[in-house]
Give the backbone structure.
Amino acid sequence: MTGFLDLYSEKDTFLHRLDPRVKLLAVALISVLAFILTELLYLVVLLCFILLLLVLARSSYGKAFFALKFVVRFMILITLLWPLFDRSGAPVLFSIGPLDITEPAVWRGATSAVRVGCFATLWYILMFTTSQRDLVRALVKLGLRFDYGLALAISFRFIPTFGLTIESIKDAQRARALELDKGSILRRSRNYVSILVPTIVYALRTADTLALTLQSRAYGAFSNRTYLREIRMRASDYVAMTVVVLILLLPALAKYIYGVQI
Amino acid sequence: MIPRPDADSEDRVIFLRDAKFTYESGVEALKGVTLVIDKGEYLAVVGGNGSGKTTLAKHLNGLLRPTGGQVLVMGVQASTRTVAELARVVGYVFQNPDHQLFCRTVHDEVSFGPANIGLDGPEVKRRADRAIAVMNLSDIRDRPPLSLTLGLRRRVSIASVIAMEPQVLVLDEPTTGLDAREADELMAIIRRLNDEGTTIVLITHEMKLVAEHANRVVVMMDGKVVLDSDTRGAFSDLGLLRRSKLLPPPVTQLAHRLSQIGVSKDILTPQELVFELTRGDDQ
Amino acid sequence: MVFRSEFVVLMPCSTAPQVRFNVYPCHVVSVGVAEDEQRDVVKEKPRILSGGDSKFVSPRTVALYGVLTALTAAITYMTVIPFPPTRGYFNLGEAMVFFSAFTFGWRAGAICGGVGSAAADLLAGFGMFAPTTLVAKGAEGLVAGTIGRMKGGKPWAYALGIICGGACMITTYFLSEWLLLDFGLGAAIAEIPTNIAQVTIGGAVGTLLSHYVKQSMPSLGR
């Protein structure tokens, strides 16, 4: 297990209350903004703003730490790897064998790292503040067909179940003297077949039962179906949407119309 | 009193001393369990859901490691051995046979365990054939196990464990989902294994099975052993069983109701009750 | 015949005599099964009536896609074999993409591979990769499913499917990481060896799984 099966936690902040469609839009637009910014300073400002949002999302320390650990590890990796493949510019800071590490390359690496930090953190905020249910509802509202939305909802519902099944099957096969963490990566993968086959068979049986359940609950009986919980845009959602659009629009105007270096 | 581990006692196959286990989520599943299992016993571990009986069983073959205390298997610290090594001594049959079955034929399935513990070809075949014979599966040895009925799948999964010829066989709720006849057949086979010398640890909350088969009962409640006695003794205290969320078989309940007319309370089977009542007539 | 407000219990004839008298007053219907009739559970698939003139896909398909997607995500998430570079994990999720594609066709491969892997990214906290993953693994499943099932699934078709599908996946990740996510050439290249290993092993295991599962559940695979 590498993390939390559900990053979402039930809280009452404006980020949690925001319409999920607005949040998806915000992730997309702010990502575009991070993409068009090229100056390190402005990117750092943007990252600070995003980190502020992360604080406002009031996620638990454990989860925030988990997210930051990943983001920071990633940023360091990019900063280190960048100059190795970008040897343009001067002055040369130092050389490792045939490799020249130049100052502009280091700056460009740092810029790129901060940008990636922005991307990664945005998604964490989305997942911290949006339940899987709301995510599916938003996608259906955005035009995903209901039946595919239902399949998506079913899959989110079953991910933890199958996770537990896999654990249990792993134990059952280990009790038959199967050794998973021994041998080459090829050997280990081969050993996983004895776990994956029962898992898949179990899952396909589940699918059979599920198909019957869907039918007995009148799935597809009426094509103009109604929903118990509808998501609706409220005034605050429109305000947030406007703010998000402006956040992208103003710097974009400054850059492409007025030629400001940002 | 906590018994001391006794290295020279050959009869002692499993010894738990004050074993504690806490899951990562913080749930304390075992709160200090001390238990000695001797060779050839037919032991039933009973308790309601969440009483810790499955957690206890998973310690016997190393699937879980105690977070406190000790587990000795054949006099050796279980924590120093891998699950694969312990699997030669302690076989564990999971509740859901579908969690184990994946091969193309019953024979392949039963050979999987013996092959894993590094036996050579003829020995694997010998053991697989024996296990198939013991579980009465000879007729279907070339059928795909996943297409069999639940009763047969359960038997295949037991065969696939006993093919490793373990000295101790742990069975987790072996009769769930079986009808009466399938269950009776299965329990008769397990009885036979026990007669041949295999130590049986039966995990269940089905008290009827316990009354008819086990010769020792360990009642678990809340991560602790609240009662460890022979089967007859276990059924004399209905209050304790009820607190452990267990229901004694109807015949025992009836005997308790009849105790005011002199019927003894430790009745386990209908035959015993009949005997008890007719004996009463003679007096 | 069942009457109004009746409590009916269906049980096999071998259990019926033991029905507990103290539950509820109920009408026990004992269902007999011929003495030594061997029931083949797998062949006896539940019969799903067609969805009528509904514009939705059949419930069978919804259930199958939902379950396969969940399975892909769960396996991606659970079978992590630690391996250092960029995304930091080698997993067998790839095997599920190929399994879905080879067993149920390109549509299942594309949807379950793409959505399932993207969902795993979201849940594990690699949300930044989710859009790329959706495209990369979706394309992989689509291509592998189309090529791998040509000529009724000959071994060379599987191999070609794995190679072409894997190539789509690796290229998509590389381009996206290099140009869109702007990791720089270095980090984007560092990912390629892991991905190649993942496709090779995932392809082999996926083919094996498809083979095994089709054999143990002969009714699958249409």
Notes: The beta strands of chain B are 12-22, 28-38, 42-46, 68-73, 76-77, 90-93, 168-172, 199-204, 216-221, 224-229. Confidence is low (pLDDT under 50) at residues 1-5 of chain B. The longest strand of chain B covers residues 12-22. Residues 249-283 of chain B form one domain.
